[in-house]
Structure formats: structure tokens, C-alpha cells
């Protein structure tokens, strides 16, 4: 069941622009960052209840995806992290396809496996984790 609610664009202009480009092209344009594939994660705002959309690097394995709350290695989690914790039902757009997914945060060995996949897809994640004492959270998104 697709998420219902009013879309509230990100306060970050380059993020808003990339979401717009992906959505307006039906997922055919704007789907890369420095040549690496990008997906769009839609979450429900933990306070506003509005729909929030965050482009993330595409990390996929056997129909499941990882959402890596890296925020460039900043000391704090991205705001969407709290949204997903509060509302694990999310929507993921990968190119022209959209799926309703359930997110769960992974830890331990399972996280290690997904972290390896994430760094293989986007090597900067490794540098981000070196840059911060914050352990960068990883959600696994599984189709509902
Ligand atoms: C800027 C901020 O966004 P954020 O949720 O912190 O997310 C920051 C970034 O992670 C997000 O912009 C990502 O899209 C950045 N980003 C990546 N970010 C990542 O963390 N990982 C990635 O792999 C990644 C890749 C990526 C690729 C392309 C691109 O364009 C951006 C990429 C934001 O939108 N804040 C809103 C609030 C959004 C929100 O969810 N509000 C909640 C309330 C939150 C609260 O106040 O507690 C609500 O609506 O209820 C605001 O300030 O008004």
C-alpha cells in the first residue's frame, strides 16, 4: 500500500533538485551521483507526518536494499533516520520502479555483510565511517 501524505521537499536545494529530476523523468534521469546509481527513499516524517524523500546510494542484493544513514560522515544521523525508526514502512524508487518496503536496522554480522556491499557500491562510505565516531546505521529494506 503506497505511503499516503503530503510531500514536503528537503530543505537542501541539491537534494530537492535531484528528487524532482528523478520523479519528473519517471526514474529515467538524475539517477546517479558521480556515475554511481542512486535510489529515492520516501519516509514518513516522525513529527510532521509528511512524506520526505531522500536520494541515497543504491545498494541492492537479491531484491533487498540497504539504506545507509551516512550523511557524509557527520557526527549526527540524518533526520530521515528517526523517521524510519518511527515508521519502518517506507517506499523505495529504483529507476522507474517503486516498491513498498519495510526497513529494519541491522547489526553485528548481518550489518558487516551489508556494509561490505554498501562500500562496494559507494567506496566513500568507508571514508565517512573513518571520519566519525558515530557508527553509521544501516537499514535493510525488504519488500512488503
Ligand atoms: C536536510 C535534511 O535531510 P535529512 O533527512 O537529514 O537527510 C540528509 C541527507 O541524508 C539526505 O539529504 C540525503 O538525500 C543525502 N544523500 C545521502 N545521504 C545519506 O545519508 N546516505 C546516502 O547514501 C546518500 C546519498 C545521496 C545521493 C544523492 C543525493 O542527492 C543525496 C544523497 C532535511 O530534509 N531536513 C528537513 C526535515 C526533514 C524531516 O524528516 N523532518 C521530520 C522531523 C524531524 C525532526 O525534527 O525530528 C518530519 O517531517 O517530521 C528540514 O530541515 O526541514
Describe the protein's architecture and organization.
This protein has 144 residues and is α+β, with helices and mostly antiparallel strands. The protein has four helices and eight strands; from the N terminus they run H-E-E-E-E-E-H-E-E-H-H-E. The relative contact order is 0.20. The structure holds coenzyme F420. Coenzyme F420 binds at residues 10-12, 14-15, 18, 33, 38, 45-48, 50, 52, 54-57, 68-71, 78-80, 82-83.
Question: Would you spell out the secondary-structure blueprint of this structure?
Answer:
Layout: H1 13-24, E1 32-33, E2 36-44, E3 51-57, E4 60-61, E5 64-68, H2 79-86, E6 89-94, E7 97-105, H3 108-121, H4 124-131, E8 138-143
Antiparallel strand pairs: 1-2, 2-3, 2-6, 4-5, 5-8, 6-7, 7-8
Bound molecules: coenzyme F420 (F42).
How would a textbook summarize the main sheet?
A: 8 strands, antiparallel
Bound molecules: coenzyme F420
Shape: globular
**How large is the count of helical segments?**
4
Radius of gyration, in Å, reads 14 Å
Structural class: alpha+beta
Number of strands: 8
Q: Please tell me the overall pLDDT.
A: 97
The ordered string of helix (H) and strand (E) elements is HEEEEEHEEHHE
Taken as a percent bin, the fraction of beta residues is 25-35%
Q: Estimate percent helicity.
A: 25-40%
**Could you tell me how far the N terminus lies from the C terminus, measured between alpha carbons in angstroms?**
9 Å
Report low-confidence residues grouped into runs of 5 or more.
none
Amino acid at each position: 500500500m503506497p505511503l499516503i501524505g503530503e510531500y514536503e521537499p528537503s530543505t537542501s536545494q541539491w537534494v530537492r533538485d535531484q528528487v524532482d529530476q528523478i520523479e519528473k523523468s519517471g526514474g529515467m534521469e538524475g539517477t546517479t551521483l558521480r556515475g554511481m546509481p542512486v535510489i529515492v527513499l520516501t519516509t514518513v516524517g516522525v513529527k510532521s507526518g509528511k512524506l520526505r524523500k531522500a536520494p541515497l546510494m543504491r545498494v541492492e542484493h537479491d531484491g533487498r536494499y540497504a539504506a545507509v544513514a551516512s550523511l557524509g560522515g557527520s557526527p549526527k544521523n540524518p533526520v530521515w533516520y528517526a523517521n524510519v525508526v518511527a515508521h519502518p514502512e517506507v517506499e523505495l524508487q529504483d529507476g522507474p520502479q517503486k516498491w513498498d518496503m519495510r526497513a529494519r536496522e541491522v547489526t553485528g554480522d548481518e550489518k558487516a555483510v551489508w556494509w561490505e556491499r554498501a562500500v562496494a557500491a559507494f567506496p566513500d562510505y568507508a571514508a565517512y565511517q573513518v571520519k566519525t565516531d558515530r557508527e553509521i546505521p544501516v537499514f535493510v529494506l525488504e519488500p512488503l
